[in-house]
Amino acid sequence: MASTPKTRAMLTVPELCDELGITRSTFYDWRQKQRAPRCIKLPNGGIRVRRIDLEIWLDEHEDAA
After folding, report:
1. Which of 19, 44, 57, 59 is the most exposed place for a label (fewest CB within 10 A)?
2. What is the pLDDT of residues 18-65, one digit of tens each?
């Protein structure tokens, strides 16, 4: 039985950048300008983005054409 990949509840910066098709520098630029999806800063300095926060952010930036 083949297993299907699970949707991760929290994304790392490389995973987020890959999903959005952006560079890390673009993500950090957006973050500095407070335009990035809501982030969680871990005690070790790592950054994660909850999948739900990414979905909300994408919905907010959807073009209402």
Report:
1. 44
2. 999 999 999 999 999 999 999 999 999 999 999 999 999 999 988 865
